[in-house]
Amino acid sequence: MSPAAAAARVASFAANFTTSTAPSSGGRLLRPFRGNPRPRRAVASMAVSAPKSPAAASFLERRESERALHFVKYQGLGNDFIMVDNRDSAVPKVTPEEAAKLCDRNFGIGADGVIFVMPGVNGADYTMRIFNSDGSEPEMCGNGVRCFARFIAEVENLQGTHSFKIHTGAGLIIPEIQDDGKVKVDMGEPILYGPDVPTKLSSTKNEAVVKAELAIDGLAWHVTCVSMGNPHCITFGSEELKVLHVDDLKLSDIGPKFEHHEMFPARTNTEFVEVLSRSHLKMRVWERGAGATLACGTGACAVVVAAVLEGRAERKCVVDLPGGPLEIEWREDNNHVYMTGPAEAVFYGSVVH
Ligand SMILES: N[C@@H](CCC[C@H](N)C(=O)O)C(=O)O
């Protein structure tokens, strides 16, 4: 094929793909997104006018008529998700195995998880379910629920401040979209009773596991265990490394050893934390079922709870994650944890799965 013919074929593919990837929700077209930056359609920049080759057109029509999954890609501080409009069904539109394939950054769309926007139950407005990038299903996702709220505002055409009651595996979670576009989430109460986190580590402070010792890689790590609906193991250092410099950690070596440790029967998310001041913490996370991610909302909440329990920080902190900061407050009056941070749509498209 001549270079000119090849270029025309690519252009034709792009033009056709661009017009065939508008997301739908059970047949409804999503409105164009607002906000900054505006989400992009996949390969929109390649869309130039060129005659469609019959072969490319029929190829694309065939793909669309098969099982095309429409999605919107969202991110909250770089923790990214494939958002699926599942409002018409209580059954997720993709299986855990398919989710793992879609999350693959080389062979799929690429994401830390797939989130399903589902009908509400028990008086909730909506239900959120999520599959991690390995296909496992966690109870909750903090960055994900902020993205979820922004998605609902878009598809329901809501302007200004709004809050929603979201049913999750961690109970009722209430995100509120603020005037500045950030989302503040009432993340509920932390769970500190060891067997409920769950961890097999013995309690050290009342019923909580605070600064308990966990042997990994020849080091005696000091860990505090907190559930925000999903399990977290938080460490500020070990017997040997009194102070952590989180940038120096080889997360991919050490993370899986925490995640799969026998003391965590449901596996665990692990946060490694550096205290910058009593109201400013810095963390890196190794997520259960997703590995190293740029941010973890439930993790940042658990970190502040652990820092307060260990007497290292105040109840209101900024937590720096690789993807940016989150504002976290563990309120004394109602024992709830509040998380505030950004969430935005990145692009939308469709995929045959
Ligand atoms: N990134 C999320 C947490 C996602 C679930 C986690 N990997 C688990 O298995 O518990 C967040 O922002 O909270």
Automatic annotation (TrEMBL):
Pathway field of the UniProt record reads:
Amino-acid biosynthesis; L-lysine biosynthesis via DAP pathway; DL-2,6-diaminopimelate from LL-2,6-diaminopimelate: step 1/1
Kindly state which reaction or reactions the protein catalyses. Answer: (2S,6S)-2,6-diaminopimelate = meso-2,6-diaminopimelate
The subcellular location is: Plastid, Chloroplast
Q: Which InterPro entries match?
A: DAP_epimerase_AS, DAP_epimerase_DapF
A GO molecular-function descriptor: diaminopimelate epimerase activity
List the Gene3D superfamilies hit by this protein, alphabetically. Answer: Diaminopimelate Epimerase, Chain A, domain 1 (3.10.310.10)
GO cellular component terms, A-Z:
chloroplast; cytosol
Pfam families membership:
DAP_epimerase (PF01678)
E.C. number: 5.1.1.7
The lineage's top-level taxon is Eukaryota
Q: Keywords assigned by UniProt? A: Amino-acid biosynthesis, Isomerase, Lysine biosynthesis
Q: Which GO terms describe its biological process?
A: lysine biosynthetic process via diaminopimelate
Which PANTHER family does UniProt cross-reference here? DIAMINOPIMELATE EPIMERASE (PTHR31689:SF0), DIAMINOPIMELATE EPIMERASE, CHLOROPLASTIC (PTHR31689)
Task: Indicate the family of this protein.
Answer: Belongs to the diaminopimelate epimerase family.
Q: Which NCBIfam families match?
A: DapF
The entry's protein name is diaminopimelate epimerase
